[in-house]
Write a structure and sequence with these properties.
By secondary structure, the chain is mainly α. It has 23 helices and no strands.
Length: 597
């Protein structure tokens, strides 16, 4: 026991000393420090004699896992729904197009290179799909371009990529376990993951910022730091128990904490810890890298690096132009996105951990990341000269078409009273979606409880299995009532708006009000019927028999009739608490701008 502790401390000391030296050297050379960490890991790793200072594979894996947790946690702290909404269309189109193109391109390159294992080609596509937030932010900071429009678009795309990357990791985990994947598996995995993230974010935003506000009253750095770290590791453990990745847990809890009023204080406290474990993570990446494999696969590495640069520039530029941005902004954004980084290492590590990919894939991913990391600052600098040259070469008719397309997209945006109505409709739809997502989560949790714990727990008190199901299903419906009532009320308001907008007096004449009333009454009933049928199908495993079901529904209707105002009050309080928490982010952003000035 004592010897293992000494060995661990020795390995940690070597890593931190070498990382410190590398930071100084690469800073003087004006090169990305991330690349230096990887080089340091190669030099002291088990594959590079005579400097085999670290040989314990377990130590390497533990340090890498800690590094991943803090890396994803810090990415979560930088996440913001409002930042995403500002560049939403461009970010979504560019990110989805880029990921689809790069997964397809990586898969095709793997097949072209003659890799016998199809999972190698699939994981290569996933490795190439996500750009590096760390490297891009560092490059834009060094070039002092962080506040330009194309940089803001890049940050939006990176946020979308982080979300899609989390889903991609969860999907690949399922592929690695089963060895194959079907369309239904993909849909089910994405649906469950999306639902989990929505519910976790909503519940977390209601609870965690209030806890941190209470801790913040003590004005103790130590107390706040320990609380935040406890939340981070505790939530990661919960996510693992739910059979998701720790990477997902670290990102989600970081995004939840990002909504707290104490965010900037937390960021200052976490920054040294994050920097330490980020350095450990990238050094650990180098420790796992075998230079002999890199030499052996030099040709695939160069081919893949070229594909990353050209594929990402092309897909991101086209995606930004489709969203209505001008050619200069689109190309600058595309050239800034042309690299892979931390997500690629995580995906490559996933393949190694499940033993479904070949040994050469990981060093190839690291080598490609190193090459594209070096080229990123130069590509960003070269964007403007390239734009000017392309502008000279572009035929005038094509340039006129692109300009007219951008103007046409701008004219599509609602204006005046239409814009106000459209924003109201969007707000109502979002509120309905949130409430329904929470209801679905409650039913899924009840079904999980009934299948795994409920029957055994209740069997001692209730012998009849149908009555047990009635109790569980009825309790679930009662818990869901505040959110179901809220969704019904919101949909009724939406139906009234749609009836007013769609039924015109010039067509229906003196029957206008009656037609509008019929539409505004029928649509909510159809919505409620469809919702209940869907929930019945969702909870089929806990649904009681017909007689018991009728009794439960009748009891619920009576409860709703008596306590409907109480349910509405409960939901209103939850909604107000949610909005108050989200409003803190606007205050924090304003405060940050004032401090920067």
């Amino acid at each position: 026991m004592h010897d293992s502790v000494i060995t661990f401390i020795q390995d940690l000391a070597v890593i931190m000393i070498v990382a410190a030296l590398v930071t100084v050297i690469f800073h003087r050379l004006k090169q990305p420090v991330v690349l230096g960490y990887i080089v340091a890991g190669v030099l002291i790793g088990p594959h590079t004699p005579p400097f085999e200072l670290i040989k314990d594979e377990h130590t390497i894996k533990v340090l890498a896992e800690l590094g991943v947790i803090f890396l994803m946690f810090s990415l979560g702290l930088e996440f913001s729904f409002r930042k995403l909404l500002r560049v939403g269309t461009t970010a979504l189109i560019a990110a989805v197009l880029e990921i689809v193109v790069m997964i397809w391109l990586g898969y095709q390159i793997g097949l072209w290179l003659g890799w016998n294992n199809n999972l190698d080609a699939l994981f290569l596509g996933a490795i190439l799909a996500i750009s590096s937030t760390t490297i891009i932010v560092k490059a834009l900071n060094d070039l002092k371009m962080k506040n330009e429009r194309f940089a803001q678009l890049i940050f939006g795309v990176l946020i979308v990529e982080d979300i899609l990357g989390i889903g991609l990791i969860a999907l690949l985990s399922g592929v690695a376990i089963s060895g194959s994947v079907s369309g239904s598996d993909v849909f089910l995995t994405i649906s469950k993951l999306t639902l989990f993230m929505i519910v976790a974010m909503l519940v977390g935003i209601l609870l965690v910022p209030r806890l941190l506000a209470y801790i913040g009253k003590f004005r103790s750095n130590e107390m706040l730091l320990v609380t935040v770290l406890g939340l981070c590791f505790g939530f990661c453990l919960l996510v693992v128990k739910l059979e998701y990745s720790m990477v997902l847990g670290a990102f989600v809890i970081g995004a939840i904490i990002a909504e707290a009023r104490e965010l900037h204080w937390i960021e200052r406290l976490i920054e040294p810890v994050r920097d330490m474990f980020s350095a450990i993570f990238f050094v650990a990446v180098g420790l796992l890298l075998d230079p002999r494999v890199m030499v052996k696969y030099a040709t695939p590495i160069l081919v893949i690096a070229g594909a990353v640069i050209l594929g990402k520039i092309t897909s991101c530029t086209i995606g930004a132009m489709i969203a209505g941005n001008d050619g200069r902004t689109s190309l600058r954004m595309g050239m800034g996105m042309s690299q892979i980084g931390e997500f690629s290492f995580i995906i490559a590590s996933l393949g190694m951990a499940y033993k479904v990919t070949s040994d050469f894939l990981y060093p190839i991913a690291v080598a490609v990341s190193a090459i594209t990391t070096l080229t990123t600052p130069y590509l960003i600098r070269a964007a403007d000269p390239l734009v000017r040259n392309l502008a000279k070469m572009t035929p005038r008719p094509l340039g006129r078409i692109v300009k007219l397309y951008g103007e046409w997209l701008n004219n599509l945006h609602p204006q005046g009273s239409n814009a106000v109505i459209w924003n109201m409709i969007k707000r109502i739809l979002v509120q309905i979606g949130i409430n329904i997502a929470i209801v679905i989560a409650i039913f899924l949790c009840s079904a999980y409880f009934a299948v795994n714990l409920g029957n055994e727990f209740l069997a001692d008190w209730i012998g009849d299995i149908d009555w047990r199901k009635s109790l569980i299903w009825g309790s679930t419906l009662i818990l869901s009532l505040p959110f179901l009532i809220a969704a019904f009320r919101k949909f009724k308001a939406l139906s009234m708006m749609l009836a007013e907008m769609s039924v015109r007096e010039s067509i229906t004449g003196r029957h206008t009000q009656q037609v509008r009333r019929i539409i505004s009454e029928i649509l909510p009933l159809l919505f409620l019927t469809g919702t209940m049928l869907f929930l019945s199908a969702l909870s089929a495993s806990i649904l009681p028999k017909r007689e018991s079901l009728i009794l439960v529904i009748a009891s619920i209707i009576a409860i709703v009739f008596v306590l409907r105002r109480w349910f509405v009050r409960i939901h209103s309080r939850l909604q107000i608490a949610l909005y108050e928490t989200l409003d803190h982010e606007e205050e924090a952003e304003a405060e940050k701008k004032e401090n920067s000035h």
